[in-house]
Each structure stands twice: as C-alpha cells, then as structure tokens.
Amino acid sequence: MDWFDKLNADGILVTGAIVVAIELTVLLVAYFVLTGLIRFAIARIGKMPALEKVSGRIIGSLRFVRFLLRVALLLLILAVFGINGYQLYLGNDVRQYTLDQLGRIPPGFWLSMGGRLLAVIAIAIAARHVIRAIGAGLTALRSRALEFRRLRSNDRSVNRVFDRLNRIQRVLVWVLVAYVAAQLFLLPEGVSELIVIGLRVYLIISVGLLIVNAVAAVVDSLDGLSQQYAESTGLVHYYQQLRHLIPLLRRTLEYIVYASVATLVLTQLEFIAHLAKYGPGVIQGIGIFFLSRVAIEMVNLVINRTFLNEDLPEDERQRNETIFPIVKSIGAGIVYFFAIVLIMRGLGFDPIPLLAGAGILGVVVGLGAQPLVNDIVSG
Fold this sequence. Notes:
Elements: H1 2-10, H2 12-45, H3 55-90, H4 94-103, H5 109-146, H6 155-184, H7 189-233, H8 236-242, H9 245-268, H10 279-307, H11 314-346, H12 352-368, H13 370-377
Helix pairs in contact: 2-3, 5-6, 6-7, 7-8, 7-9, 9-10, 10-11
C-alpha cells in the first residue's frame, strides 16, 4: 500500500495511466483504419467482373489478414499493459521511459517494420493455403484407408488417426510461422528457444498420440483379418480362446508409447532430464509383463486341449480337472515371479533379497503342503 501511495503522491501513477490511454488509442485507431481499408477492399473486389474467378480467394485472404490484425491488436494491448505495469512496479516514470524508447528508434525503423509485417502476413496466408492442401490430401487418404478390405471394425481408429494427423499439421505449420515471425522481428533469443522447445515437446507428444491411434487401427485391422483367416482355415476355436489378449496387446503397446513419449519429453527439459534414465526400464517392464501373460495363456491353452478335453475317459478327466487348475495357478505364480525379478533388474533394483525370501517361503510352503500333495496324487 505504501508503494501505491508513493506512486500516487509523485504523480507517476496518473502519468502512467495517461500514457497507457494514449498508446491504446493509437493502437485502436490504427486497427480501425486498417480493418476499414480491408472492408473497403473486400466490397470493391466483390464488384469487379475481371476478378470474378479469383475474387473468392482474395476475399478469403483479406478476411484472414483481418483476423491476424485482431490477434496482433490483442497481443499489443497485453504488451502495453505488461511493459508499462512493470515500469510502474519498478517505480519508474512511464512517460519518460516511453520517450526514451521512442528516441532510440533508428531512422527507417517503421518502414523496415512494415516490410517485416507484410512478410509475416504473406507467410501466414501461404501457411493457410498449405494447411488446406494438406488437409485435402489427408481426406483423400482417409477415404482410401476406410475402404481397405472393406473392414468396418477399424473405422473408428482410422478416423482418429487422420483427425490427429490433421491437428498435428495445422499446429506444426502455425508454430513454424511463429518461429519465422520471431526471427523477422528480431525478438530476444530466448523467445525463439522457447518456441523451438515447445515445438519439440508438442511434436513428441503429438507423434506419440498419433502412434497410439495408429496402433489401435493396426490392431483392429489385424483382428478383423485374423478372424477372417481363422474362419477360412478352421482355426476359429483356437483364435477365440486367445482373442481376449488383443485388448491387452493394444494397452501394452499404448503404455510403451506413453513411456517412450514421457522419456523423450524429459530429455527436452533440463531440470528433470535425469529422470529419463528410468524410461527404458519401464518400457522393458511393460513388455515383460505382456509376454508373461502370453506365456501363461499359451500354457493354459495347451493344458485345456491336452488334459481337459472331452475326449478323455470320464475318471481321467475328473482327476485332471482336480489337479491341473492347481498346476495352472502354480505355473502362473512362477511366471509372474520371474517377470517381477526381470522387471526389478531392468529398473536397476537388486532382486537377490527377493529371491532369497522367495526360496525360504517356498521351503516352508512345500513342507506344510505335503499332506495336500499326497491327497491330490492319491485322487
């Protein structure tokens, strides 16, 4: 409150408010003059028969320029409040600061700035047309992908892939325009570096999400093709028993992509880059867990087809139905145990204490389960 009273007493606050009002007035007058000229040009071009074939494109470009002027006006208003507010916070005279900055402007500055502004506008207009052209190409590719083998089970995932591609190309083009604008207007080097880092992080995340969508589309397509193949070759029974692993496969691949994306993003941010060393171990752990589930399901399938099928004699099948569920549980426990050991090793932890504890526990359980084993063996 003392800071505010001091500014008010020295008249700095009132002077600063007047300077801000003048700067905002200049910005608004320039904006309305330029947009008025654009509206006049749009009205005149629409009435020119000689430009009838290209008038639509010209008018669209002028409207886009008007949109860019609105964005520029908003950014400049924020800059006026930010810069002048910071000077007031420091206790400086905003009027004198503004005059000093205007006095440092070299001859020909505004002409050069106008040329750079026109260059940025031209680049933005060209970027808009590039985005439209790429979008049209992606639409054509989407139609072809949806008609591939006339599979309907993958339509949703294919649409997600192309929607993601369309968003990526739009953002990528505009970020590149922002980077070029920063270079043309000679903004501080830190601004360009932030744009580059932001672009890298965005590309990593976007490509990762794109791969996730592509994985879903590929898995759905392979599922549909495998179903057709299994039906045509008589293997549909085996396929149906293993088909419940497909969602797990999709989630596993997605988690691997997410872990890879997180690792790459961490490498771009210096203050947390040291955490990226855990990424390969996490990816390896996800893969080991999926392979362990596949191994368990394959063993269970073999047991079901060999020892629990309906072709066996009744007494033998009943005995197998008593023994082999326990065998399945023990086998699954062993597989998961070794999977946990491998995952711990991949993450850099020492699994020896776990192995020693498991060995002692196994001896105790084995001694205590002798009567149960005898009962099972005797039927």
